[in-house]
Design brief:
Strand content: 35-45%
Number of helices: 6
Shape: globular
Order of helices and strands: HHHHHHEEEEEEEEEEEEEEEEEEEEEEE
Number of strands: 23
Distance between the termini: 53 Å
Radius of gyration: 27 Å
Strand order of the largest sheet: 1-2-3-4
Helix content: 10-25%
Amino acid sequence: MSAKGDKETKCSLSLLPPELVEKIFLYLNVRDIARLSCVCVSWREIANVDHIWLHHCMKKKWMRFGVHDNILQESPMCKPHSNVSKTSPYFQLYIPKETRLSPICQWKNVFIRVVHLFHNWDKGRYTQPVTLKGHRDQVKAIDCNRTCIVSGSEDHTLIVWSLQNCTKLYEIKAHSDAVTAVILKDNMLVTGCADSSVRVFDSTTGQVVFSLQGHQGSVDHLAIIEDYIVSAGTDRTVMVWSISQRKHVHTLRGHVDEIECLAHCGYTVVTGSWDKAVMVWDVRKEDAVQMLHGHREVVTCCYCTEDTVVSGNGDSDVRIWVRVSLYPCSLYSSFTVERFLFLFEVVTCCYCTEDTVVSGNGDSDVRI
């Protein structure tokens, strides 16, 4: 558009209150906003505001890319030649050095980059996975935060890897047996081991902070809940430890066979065992909240929310347990089975949301 046309458009827009102009833009879809932004500088500047693009990010449920995960700060971990489709998956936004346009606003930048990201996935434009080599035996446990990956192995070691460039930061040789469970929280790294110990490390240095002894078998499951470390394994017990006091708080007993799975939500912990039972605990109390019976084989997996427990077993069924009040207006509640889903193979893992249950199964399928 000519300078004269740009001036006329700007004058016509100036007749409307800025709030009204922006409200009009909010009714437009992204494609129309992009086209209007090409009309003139004035329209581009009107469309280059955060709340318009934040609105469209919210509609597509992309808020996490700008809040929890900062996609604007991400850098590629792989070299371009590792791209499986031989076409570059990297994002480069061309901005001329000399321009009268204002810098692109944050949420428009997020929106553009996420569109590019999903377009690459749809077209198969992504990089081959990085292989981290360092362990000498089977990797039994792994966890990750925003800066590093930690892996535990049957070779008795822990390795801390940089998530930024996928290189080994350091190796920890503090266990006398296989590392069977790993959990990261902030700079705290907690491990469970087949030698019956629970150890706490500083993940930035790899130094042991303290060790917890009390189990009589392999520690295969861990959780961190506020100031508590919760551990469970082959000795049939769930042990609760205080992080601040670095000591044992109490032991939860009820299972009569090895504990195979553990999940938690808030202070509620759910365990499944080879004794075919699912047990619900409050880690602040020593007695079980409830024992859930019904499975006919080992409970292989479990998941819980505030009011729901989902469990799967080796006999190919998934059970959904829902918390109900025992009496009207009562503070006391109990879990009762609401759904019984029969599948065709052993259920190896499960997950649930407010209205959906997902299971992984021994026949290589994922069922929803």
